Amino acid sequence: MRRLRLAAADGWIMTRRNMSHLVRTPEEMVLYFALPIMFVLVFGYVFGSGMSVPGGGDYREFLLPGVFAMTMLYGMGATGTAVAVDAGRGVVDRFRSMPVARSALLVGRSTADLMRAALEMSVLVVCGLLVGWEWHRGIGRALLAVALVLALRVAITWIGIYLGLVVRNADTVGTIVFPLAFPLTAVSNVFTAPELMPGWLGTLAEWNPLSATVAAIRELFGNPGLAGTGSWATENAMLLAIAWPVVLTAVFAPLAIRSYQRLSR
After folding, report:
1. Of 146, 152, 144, whose CA–CA distance to 121 is shortest?
2. How many independent structural domains does the chain possess?
3. 187: left (phi over 0), alpha (psi -120 to 50) or beta
4. Residues 67-102: tens digit of each pLDDT
5. How many whole angstroms separate alpha carbon 22 and alpha carbon 3?
6. Distance of alpha carbon 187 from alpha carbon 68, whole angstroms
7. Domain ranges, residue 194
8. Signed CA dihedral, 207, 211, 212, 218: sign only
């Protein structure tokens, strides 16, 4: 128990370190929020009048849950870049040579990213309310929807940590993340419903991990876009929204831990 308390204390110190970096670079947060806000404004106001929502409804209410999940996905770039900077500059090796719990760096990184994601969700919800989005099924279901979004962010955090430890070059991580994240966003239900896509593409979109979370939180928020195609993935979006983060975390967390352990070998 003493070792566990010490490890938790070291992990919290690393969390504070990572959060202090965020406070000292507010321009990073401004740039990070610029992309989802731009998507809301462009798709919601410029293209929104020409977009159809299955079953009817306001397109901005259809769009905002997708933007919530998309923001969590693109957070992989910030995570991977931060880890790559620490690994490439030898910061990880310095911490490993100190009397610090070996788990502290990864725990601190994942905890700080979760706190950052909660802040991002708060800002995005406020922005959504300002453009006319709202939830319709009570605060309890709305909080559950936020929890599903944060669960997706936890899984994406471990993917970002693994990517940063393997690549160990911040510039390279930045060039890798966009080609990975953009197809996942495009072939999903973030901007348009899968049933409006060609058959095979719609099937891929329905089974996209991002689509599962978006469909589940649309249901919890009571937002439009729930007509569906009757497929198993659509009818069980809530189950997939839980299963996908669990599976991704179970795969990438051990890979990240193994890569971290091999850094100094």
Report:
1. 146
2. 1
3. beta
4. 899 989 988 888 888 888 888 777 777 777 777 777
5. 29
6. 16
7. 2-261
8. negative
Contact 160, 78 (CB under 8 A): yes
Q: Which two tokens stand for residue 263?
A: 């850094």
User: How far apart, in Å, do the first and last CA atoms of the chain sit?
Assistant: 29
Q: Model confidence over 42-67: pLDDT tens digits?
A: 777 776 666 777 777 788 888 889 98
Q: Identify the three-state secondary structure at position 29.
A: helix
Average pLDDT of span 16-42? 77
| Alpha-carbon 161 to chain mean position | 13
* Cβ neighbour number for residue 90 with a 10 Å cutoff: 12
DSSP state letter for 54: T
Q: What are phi and psi of 102, to 5 degrees?
A: -65, -25
How far is residue 94's CA from residue 145's CA, in Å, rounded to a whole number?
39
- Collapse the DSSP code of 52 into the 3-class scheme (helix H, G, I; strand E, B; otherwise coil) and give the result: coil
Half-sphere CA count of 224, side-chain side, radius 13 A: 17
CB atoms within 10 A of CB 196: 14
Q: Is the overall model pTM greater than 0.85, yes or no?
A: yes
Exposed (0-12), middle (13-18) or buried (19+): which is 2, by Cβ within 10 Å?
exposed
- Rounded CA separation 252/3 (Å): 25
